[in-house]
């Protein structure tokens, strides 16, 4: 009787863990569905509203590459028709966290999010930039460089100016000749944000508990055997690596929602 009760208790714990994991995963999926897919390494712009010219996108990517390689920060620009039901601050923060904008361990990324139909803009920064870019300074940047252009329908000009001025605050030497930028990320390194690590770790624990309880470890032994015989996998390059003179991809940064927004 005691053994049966113990087994039932274990099963209840497993079920609770599985439900918790499913709820957490569902929240992440919903969050991911609300923002565009992360651009490839070396690109820092997603323009779903189609308001940026090819030259403007190239300019933003060039600024992003220099800033990235300096080791001082990373940037991302997202232009969409609408933020949907999300507040502008939440949307920008979701992009910052979901894409991992910023170097790992530094949280030095910033995201400029623009909704052309909503007529709203928000610039959010990672924890590591809050000292250089407080809310008041960000608001001043938007008032000076973004909003006047937006009111004239010149979205590209306003976005490029805002990105450039923000990048100069973070890295004053950006754009100067004879730079010797430091490559801050190894080309073959994949960085994970804290929530990705937490999700993966929780999934592994749940899998092991279920396997040991219901299958007495058979699934784990089978996977280990397959891994050993395959030699531990391939070693191909992922999308987070750098390469070919471009930026190295977003590095897993995060933030707490600092920033400012405006309407026009």
From TrEMBL:
Signal peptide stretch: 1-32
UniProt keyword annotation of Iron-sulfur present: no
Matching InterPro entries: TPM_dom (IPR007621)
Keywords, sorted A to Z: Membrane, Signal, Transmembrane, Transmembrane helix
A Pfam family reported for this protein in Swiss-Prot or TrEMBL: TPM_phosphatase
Bilayer-spanning residue ranges: 194-215
DNA-binding in keyword set: no
Region (Disordered): 240-264
TPM domain sequence ranges: 45-166
Protein name as it appears in the record: TPM domain-containing protein
Organism: Veillonella seminalis ACS-216-V-Col6b
Phylogenetic lineage: Bacteria, Bacillati, Bacillota, Negativicutes, Veillonellales
């Amino acid at each position: 009787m005691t053994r049966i009760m113990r087994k039932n208790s274990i099963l209840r714990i497993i079920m609770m863990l599985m439900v918790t994991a499913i709820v957490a995963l569902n929240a992440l999926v919903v969050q991911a569905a609300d923002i565009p897919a992360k651009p490839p390494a070396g690109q820092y712009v997603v323009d779903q509203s189609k308001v940026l010219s090819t030259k403007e996108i190239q300019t933003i990517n060039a600024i992003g590459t220099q800033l990235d390689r300096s080791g001082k920060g990373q940037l991302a620009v997202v232009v969409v028709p609408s933020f949907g039901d999300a507040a502008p601050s939440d949307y920008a923060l979701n992009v910052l966290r979901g894409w991992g904008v910023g170097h790992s361990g530094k949280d030095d990324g910033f995201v400029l999010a623009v909704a052309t139909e909503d007529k709203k803009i928000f610039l959010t920064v990672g924890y590591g930039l809050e000292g250089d870019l407080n809310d008041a300074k960000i608001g001043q940047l938007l008032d000076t460089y973004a909003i006047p252009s937006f009111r004239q329908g010149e979205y590209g000009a306003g976005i490029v100016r805002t990105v450039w001025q923000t990048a100069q605050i973070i890295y004053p030497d950006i754009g100067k000749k004879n730079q010797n930028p430091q490559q801050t990320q190894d080309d073959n390194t994949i960085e994970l944000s804290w929530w990705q690590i937490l999700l993966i770790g929780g999934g592994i624990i749940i899998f092991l508990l279920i396997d040991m309880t219901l299958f007495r470890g058979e699934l784990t032994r089978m996977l280990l055997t397959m891994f050993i015989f395959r030699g531990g996998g391939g070693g191909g390059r992922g999308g987070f690596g750098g390469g070919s003179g471009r930026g190295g991809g977003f590095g897993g940064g995060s933030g707490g929602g600092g920033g400012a927004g405006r309407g026009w």
